[in-house]
Design goal:
single chain; 395 residues; alpha/beta; Aspartate Aminotransferase, domain 1; Aspartate Aminotransferase, domain 2; 2 domains; seven-stranded mixed beta sheet; 13 helices; 17 strands; 18% strand; binds pyridoxal-5'-phosphate
């Protein structure tokens, strides 16, 4: 049999981590990596954080899972904290980002159904977006590499150019239910939307009674130095998907909505066996204990200034390789002049973990608990790698 027991859908690198400690990962043979990938913006407390570990251990010993058919003191407490910290009035807990986006799409459609406008079922979405790998979330993109071979996809999405408000206005019609957008695109190459664009979407949603849905799965949860990226724009969504950092590595996600937006999400309209079980909520609470305060967010902003400053200083020394630094907080991207994947592989071979993104960007996504010494180590290793790296010649 040629197929591997683990379905071979990932181009898995030779890194085989078996242990983590703070901002470091250790491989099977004891190799040490500085982890500035954080499981793709997930391990925001690094690895083995004592508060998160203890919360999970204690809860595992008390009660791991019960059905959502029963009352959920753990889910109620966690959802109440999210409601208090955000624009939202209500939360549906999921196990992943794609599920949080699915719930967001359903909530937006059901809003219009509830108000007797079932024809308003189409979300306007954007080029280079990434919303997950379910049939619904791949239907919300126009990226062929995600969609190839999975037709027929879900109708009800119109993809227009990211950050182009006129394109949105031109695409709006009688079927439009709202807009689904990452305020800062992650997989697409760390591209922040302009404030005019995000404010424009809010205005169009308000004028036409449409749903503004933010996908903050990657850009949310303290990564930008605010709890959610929408706070930078001074614009609140009606519905928002969160995940990744929310459980600090424990599988957890959330669809947050205002009371108005969730009007259609009544008993029986949605569900999940695991979503928001006691163990997941304990992880979620422990993460909030650490990140949901101004002191921590200030730390993220300070580390961001240091890291960004150091990267910007380094770039002119290697201007044959690097073009610019972009992003917000510790959601940073280095735009390269050549294939970023090849460079990410090279860094990995030299003990540095980063993540490639679209548009030849190297994503720099450290745990939010990094300290200055880690930034120093990162920039030193990156400069050293840049000095020796030979751009592969096209075949
Ligand atoms: N939305 C965005 C913006 C993402 O970056 C991702 C994952 O990278 C997802 C949704 C899907 O999340 P998950 O892989 O947890 O399903």
């Amino acid at each position: 049999m040629a197929i591997t027991p683990l379905m071979p859908v990932y181009p898995r690198s030779p890194v085989r981590p078996v242990r983590g400690e703070g901002v470091y990962l250790y491989g099977e043979k004891g190799e040490k990596y500085l982890d500035f990938a954080s499981g793709i913006a997930v391990n925001l407390l690094g690895h083995g954080h004592p508060h998160l570990t203890k919360a999970i251990q204690d809860q595992a010993a008390t009660l791991i899972h019960v059905s959502n058919l029963y009352g959920s003191p753990q889910g109620e407490a966690f959802a109440k904290r999210l409601v208090d910290l955000t624009f939202a009035d209500t939360v549906f807990l999921t196990n992943s980002g794609a599920e949080a986006v699915e719930c967001s799409i359903k909530t937006a459609r059901r809003y219009h159904h509830h108000h007797g406008r079932p024809e308003k079922h189409e979300l306007i979405t954007f080029t280079s977006a990434f919303h997950g790998r379910t049939l619904g979330t791949i239907s919300a993109t126009n990226q062929e590499k995600l969609r190839d071979g999975f037709a027929p996809l879900l109708p009800g999405f119109t993809v227009v150019e990211f950050d182009n408000l006129s394109a949105v206005e031109a695409a709006m019609g009688p079927h439009t239910a709202g807009f689904l957008v990452e305020p800062i695109q992650g997989e697409g190459g760390i591209r922040p939307a302009s404030p005019e664009f995000i404010k424009g979407l809010r205005r169009l949603a308000d004028e036409n009674d449409l749903m503004l849905v933010f996908d903050e799965v990657q850009c949310g949860y303290a990564r930008t130095g605010r709890l959610f990226a929408y706070e930078h724009y001074g614009v609140e969504p009606d519905i928002m998907a969160a995940a990744k950092g929310i459980g600090g590595g424990f599988p957890l996600g959330a669809c947050l909505a205002t009371e108005k937006a969730a009007a259609g999400m009544v008993i029986g309209t949605h569900g999940s066996t695991y979503g928001g079980n006691p163990l997941a909520c304990a992880a979620g609470e422990a993460v909030l204990d650490v990140v949901a305060n101004e002191k921590f967010l200030e730390h993220v902003r300070r580390m961001s200034d240091r890291l960004r400053g150091a990267l910007e200083q380094m770039i002119p020394n290697h201007d044959h390789l690097f073009e610019s630094v972009r992003g917000v907080g510790l959601l940073l991207g280095i735009k390269m002049k050549s294939d970023s994947r090849a460079f990410v592989n090279y860094l990995r071979e030299h003990g540095l973990l980063t993540v490639a993104a679209g548009d030849n960007v190297v994503r720099v996504l450290p745990p939010l608990v990094i300290e200055e010494q880690h930034i120093g180590e990162f920039v030193e290793k990156l400069s050293e790698a840049a000095r020796h790296y030979q751009v592969p010649q096209a075949a």
